[in-house]
Design a protein that fits this description.
SH3 type barrels, three-stranded antiparallel β-sheet, single chain, mainly beta, 7 strands
Length: 67
């Protein structure tokens, strides 16, 4: 499993973003917004769907749903 939680999918200025938080997060400062092509904790965001995002790390692909 991924070392973070997919919090949501957002649309800002016509662009799609996902918000992710480390599983052991203790503050809102740890929330990250990502667009396809960006990485977080070694996982690259590939695609964003309505309530899902697909990530890749070390040749492995994982699709997460909004938590």
């Amino acid at each position: 499993s991924a070392p973070y939680v997919l919090n949501g999918v957002e649309y800002r200025g016509g662009a799609r973003y996902v918000s992710v938080t480390p599983r052991q997060a203790s503050s809102l400062e740890q929330v990250r917004l990502l667009t396809p092509g960006e990485s977080f904790s070694g996982w690259m965001l590939l695609t964003i769907a309505s309530r899902q995002a697909t990530f890749r790390t070390a040749g492995r692909t994982l699709t997460l749903s909004v938590h």
